[in-house]
Every structure is written in C-alpha cells, then in structure tokens.
C-alpha cells in the first residue's frame, strides 16, 4: 500500500517538478486510496510534458520541420518537371499519340499487355506515336496512358475507344466484321485483359516471386526486383487475395490460365487471325496477351503453349512479322 | 539527456504500474480477463457448432451435394451470381442437392462452396469442373471446339468483369439504395447499421479490382458494351451456343439475373428496352430450370 500524499506533490494536478530528478521511484510519493486515478493521470501528464520540453524533443521537432521543408521542396520541383514534360509532349505534333509506359523489355517490347496492345493497334491503324517512359503512371494509377493533342486519357480500352472514334475507325477490317464476330472479339478481349492477365501476374510475381522476370527485365528495371521483394511482395499478395486470383494454389492458377489459353486457341482455330482472314482491332489484345504468355511469364508456360497450341504459336509469328518487323531492334539489351 | 529520457519514460511507466494497482486498475484488469475468457469461450462454442454442422452434412447421402451459400434474396434465389450459377448448374445436371445457409463462406472466404461425400470444395468453377468429371458429363453437350472457346470466354467475361461492373454500381455508385430491398427483411436493419463499417474496405476492394477507378458513366459504358457482345453472340439461338443448353448457360443466366434484378432500376430498364433477346433468354432459362422461382425467395 502506498502511503499518504507525499511531499513532492501539491494536489493532484500537473504538479511542477523542480528539475530533473536523480532517481525514478522517489519522485512519486503517495497517491494511493481514493484519490488514485486523478493523481495517477496528473503524474502521467506532467511526465509527458517534461519529456516534451527536453532538448531531445526539441531536436525531434526541428528534424520534423526540416523534413517538411524538404518535402515541400521536392513537391514543388516535381510539379515543375511535370509542367516541363507536358509542354514537351504538346510539341509532338497534331494527332501524334504520346504513349506513357515502362521501358522496353528484353524478350518482349513491353511486359504490360495493355501497353503492347495500344502500340500494336497504332501500328495496325497507321497512327503515329512516340513512347515516353518518364511518367509511366497516369491518373487513376493506371499504366499505360496517352497524351494526344494535349488531352490525357487513361485505361487501355478507353484509349482504344477514343482512338477509334478520333481517327474514324482506322482499321478497315474491323468495320467489315459481322455483329457476331465483333462480339466474339470483344468477349475474347475482356477474358484476356481481365482474367488471363491476372493469372499471368500471379505466376510472375507471387508464385515465382519474380525469379524469371528478374532474368528478363532490362538493366534499368532490374533494381526494381530487389525493391519489390523487400517492400511490395506482401502488398501484391494482399491485392491478389482481394482480387480473387490470389486465393488459388499454383496448380489451380495454371489450370485456369491454360483453360483460358485453350479457349483462345479454340476461337482462333485454323483462321490466320482471331476473327478471320484479316487482322482486326481485337487481334491487338490477343497478340499482346499471347506475347506475355510466350515470352515473359515462365519457361513452363511457354512450353505448354508451344506443345499444345501450334496454331497460337503460328499466329504469334504471323502478327509479329506483320506489325513488329523491328521486334529484335526494339528490344532492350 | 539520457537521464531526462529515463526519468520521463521511467516516470510514465511507474505511474502506469502504480495506477494499475489501484482499484480502478484492478477492475480494468478483471474486465480484460473476462473479455479474453469470453472470446475463448465463443471460439470453442463456434468450433463445436461447426463440428455439429459437419456431422449433419455428412448424413446428406452419397453423392448428394450440400450447397453452402448466402440466404435467398427477396426477388431472386441468390444475390451472389456464383451461387446462382452453381445452383442452376446442379439443376441442369440433375444432381441431387440440399441447401445450407448456416455457413455460407468456406475455405478462402469463398461463397458458394460444397460438401460432397465428406469432401469440401470451393470456387464455383473448380466445383463445376469436379462435378462434371465426378458425374461423368451430366449435361449432354455436342459443341465444336470453336463453340467451347466462345462459351468459355463468355463465362470468364461475365464472371470476371461484367459482374464487377454490376457489383460496383449496386454497392458503391448507388450506395446500396436498390440492393438493400433484395436482402431478406430481417437483415436489413443490421446491414444499414453496419454499412459505414464495411463501406471503406468495399471501396478498396473495387479499387484493387480495377473497376473502382472508373466513374458511373465509364462503368455503364463497359457494362453495356459487354451486354451487347453477349446478345450478338447469342443471336437468334434459344441458348447461348446452340439449340440445347450447355454448362456455360448457367453462368449466363446467373449473371443476367444480377443485371436485370440485382443492379439498378435504370439498368433493368435499359436491358428491357434494348436487349429483348437477353430478356427472352432469361425467361426461357427461368421457366426451364426454376419453375419454383417464386418459392425460392425470401420475404
């Protein structure tokens, strides 16, 4: 039991200390019985206030202010650079697409099928474009995105829809499709973009923990692998869980992936292109996803496609030679 | 500096430990202990209930599917398209099943899930694949590889994208104003009270999924585009791919139900005005596999 109120305290409130005490226990006398809680919390408040007044805390405050000043400086500089870049892009020319994405890969021109889809489409449609890798992330935290005539557009499908309208349906073969063919194209595109790619991402980043990607990324992106493994692999796992695909085991992920690729192969059949004898807009999506599966996912996935889907491999080569004759020159080293 | 820190920190700790010894402190400790014991008790009781349920389910019979899903909605048999897809599939395949709504979410938090012959399976597509093999192709299909390709792509498009546009509209864009009346009435007040708690994780879910980054106009753009593709692929066929229904029709019917009856009045109006083919298909499947539709609803 603690004794009555000790000499060091006058009342229960934030009594003052007369200076740094030499010992810890002696300062607090008494404070038992009925006056307990109020006395106790008063002592706490005083203790905290003493800490706040100390040189250590003042130094911390100075550090915080310094950090805030640096933060503001960095933000202002970033905004200045952003304005500079946008002025640069606006000078690219009328109707020239500035495609903002990540740097080129070593086995595939872009490890994002969405960026590769837009690039392939521009080549198909004869739309002039330039690549920018300084600001790959756009609004809505999406990549790729484009700037055209000063306007910024996000999401690859909204971009394609815009370009189709803006350039007045530049891929003639797409216009000749029947509604049923167009529907098959749309359905296939959604399957590949919204499901198959998620499975590929699972395999690349979670199941294989970027082991294969580390070997095929260009030098400037290789350091991202270490950063990813240290800071982001937990975040990615949690996102994949939320998305749904992260709840599956490896055999299940591959089951779904191979099932989607089988559907793509069955839809292509013996035709030279996805929907017939000529390449249409939807071939951009099919080719881009197939390129990821064959060249930038995992050796076993490539083996599966090469062994089981000869028609897909030939289709890949056909599209590559038609629209990517500069494939080897474009790849990073 | 060191002794100031120690005095400051030490003083705080001593005060805390002194306070913990007071009556109020002891009372708090007792409350915390009681809460911990209550938690342990609840967990043990929950485990016992789970065990009891499993014993019940194992008596369902050989090859009888125990279908675990959410409770029935007021205007449709289930607000989850995956549960509705699976139940429709069971009816199409003439597989005997019983419904359980006591434990709607299984391993990995998925609904629906099934118990069959003591085995527990989750994920509607993995379940359908298993049942198709186990019951040796119970739905007779005569489809070409090209038809299978389209069917699979349709199922994936609807289950992995279209439904998220529908869900985003009904939960976030419309703030659950329409879907609230589809929940059984006895849960509505509870859901209303708890809504602020799960609204934020729900928004995050849709953001991570991707659809949550779009506004209403863009969301409906994607939704209506996919419904157009669905109708154009169906054409004038009575079912998705042919004159006879196939496994993929289960997915189409379940998703269409959500679009028509579980999304928003404006979406239902839009579909009824622009997609008579899809509406006719929905009626056809409903009459064929859900003649007891009215009875399969909650109040």
Task: Report what the structure shows.
The complex is a heterodimer of chains A (333) and B (299). Chain A is built from 13 helices and four strands. Chain A is mainly α and 333 residues long. Among the domains of chain A are: 55-88; 173-332, Glutathione S-transferase Yfyf (Class Pi), Chain A, domain 2 (Up-down Bundle). Chain A has a four-stranded mixed β-sheet, with helices on one face. Chain A is globular. With 299 residues, chain B is mainly alpha-helical. Chain B folds into three domains: 12-48; 65-134, Glutaredoxin (3-Layer(aba) Sandwich); 145-296, Glutathione S-transferase Yfyf (Class Pi), Chain A, domain 2, CATH 1.20.1050. Chain B is 63% helix and 5% strand. Chain B contains ten helices and four strands. Chain B has helices at residues 2-20, 23-57, 81-92, 124-134, 145-173, 185-209, 216-234, 248-261, 265-274, 276-289, and strands at residues 65-68, 97-100, 113-116, 119-122. Chain B has a four-stranded mixed β-sheet, covered by helices on one side. In chain B, helix 3 packs parallel to helix 4, helix 5 (145-173) packs antiparallel against helix 7 (216-234) and helix 8 crosses helix 10 (276-289). Chain B is globular, with a radius of gyration of 25 Å. The model of chain B has no long low-confidence stretch (mean pLDDT 93). At the A-B interface, helix 1, helix 4, helix 6, helix 8 and helix 9 of A face helix 1, helix 5, helix 6 and helix 7 of B. Chain B: Residues 81-174 form the Thioredoxin-like fold domain. Chain B: Pfam families: GST_C_6, GST_N_4.
């Amino acid at each position: 039991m603690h004794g009555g109120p000790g000499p060091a305290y006058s009342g229960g409130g934030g009594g003052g200390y007369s200076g740094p005490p030499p010992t810890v226990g002696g300062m607090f006398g008494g404070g038992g019985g009925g006056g307990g809680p109020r006395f106790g919390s008063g002592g706490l408040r005083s203790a905290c206030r003493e800490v706040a007044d100390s040189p250590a805390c003042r130094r911390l405050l100075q550090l915080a202010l310094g950090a805030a000043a640096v933060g503001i400086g960095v933000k202002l500089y970033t905004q200045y650079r952003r304005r500079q870049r946008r002025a640069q892009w606006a000078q690219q020319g009328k109707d020239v697409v500035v495609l903002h994405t990540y740097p080129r890969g070593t086995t595939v021109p872009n490890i994002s099928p969405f960026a590769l889809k837009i690039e392939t489409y521009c080549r198909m449609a004869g739309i002039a474009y330039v690549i920018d890798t300084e600001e790959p992330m756009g609004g809505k935290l999406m990549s790729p995105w484009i700037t055209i005539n000063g306007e910024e557009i996000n999401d690859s499908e909204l971009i394609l829809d815009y370009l189709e309208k803006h350039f007045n349906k530049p891929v003639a073969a797409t216009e000749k499709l029947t509604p049923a063919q167009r529907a098959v194209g749309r359905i296939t595109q959604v399957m590949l973009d919204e499901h198959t790619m998620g499975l590929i991402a699972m395999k690349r980043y979670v199941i294989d923990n970027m082991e294969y990607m580390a070997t095929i990324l260009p030098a400037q992106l290789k350091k991202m692998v270490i950063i990813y493994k240290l800071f982001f692999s937990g975040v990615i796992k949690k996102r994949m869980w939320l998305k749904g695909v992260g709840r599956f085991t490896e055999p299940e992920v591959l089951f779904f992936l191979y099932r989607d690729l089988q559907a793509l192969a069955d839809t292509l059949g013996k035709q030279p292109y996805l929907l017939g004898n000529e390449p249409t807009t939807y071939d951009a999506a099919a080719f881009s996803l197939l390129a990821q599966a064959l060249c930038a996912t995992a050796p076993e996935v490539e083996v599966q496609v090469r062994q089981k889907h000869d028609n897909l491999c030939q289709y890949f080569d056909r599209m590559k030679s038609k629209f990517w004759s500069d494939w080897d020159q474009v790849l990073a080293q | 500096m060191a002794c100031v820190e120690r005095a400051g920190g030490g003083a705080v700790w001593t005060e805390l430990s002194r306070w913990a010894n007071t009556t109020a402190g002891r009372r708090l400790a007792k409350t915390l202990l009681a809460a911990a014991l209550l938690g342990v008790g609840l967990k043990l009781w929950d485990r016992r209930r789970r065990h009891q349920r499993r014993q019940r389910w194992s008596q369902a019979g050989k090859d009888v599917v125990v279908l675990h899903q959410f409770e029935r909605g007021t205007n449709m048999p289930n607000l989850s398209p995956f549960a509705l897809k699976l139940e429709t599939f069971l009816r199409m395949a003439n597989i005997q099943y019983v419904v359980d709504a006591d434990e709607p979410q299984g391993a990995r938090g998925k609904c629906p899930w099934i118990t069959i012959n003591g085995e527990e399976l989750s994920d509607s597509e993995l379940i359908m694949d298993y049942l198709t093999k186990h019951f040796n192709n119970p739905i007779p299909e005569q489809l070409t590889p090209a038809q299978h390709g389209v069917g699979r792509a349709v199922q994936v498009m609807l289950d992995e994208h279209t439904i998220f546009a529908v869900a985003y509209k009904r939960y976030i864009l419309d703030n659950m104003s329409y879907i609230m009346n589809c929940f059984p009435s006895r849960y509505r007040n509870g859901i209303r009270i708890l809504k602020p708690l799960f609204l934020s994780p729900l928004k995050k879910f849709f953001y991570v999924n991707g659809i949550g980054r779009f506004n209403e106009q863009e969301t409906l753009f994607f939704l209506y585009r996919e419904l157009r593709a669905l109708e154009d692929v169906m054409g004038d066929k009575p079912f998705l791919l042919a004159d006879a229904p196939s496994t993929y029709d289960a997915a189409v019917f379940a998703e269409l139900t959500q679009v028509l009856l579980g999304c928003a009045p404006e979406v239902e109006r839009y579909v009824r005005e622009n997609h008579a083919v899809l509406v006719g298909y929905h009626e056809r499947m409903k009459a064929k596999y859900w003649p007891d539709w009215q009875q399969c609803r909650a109040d």
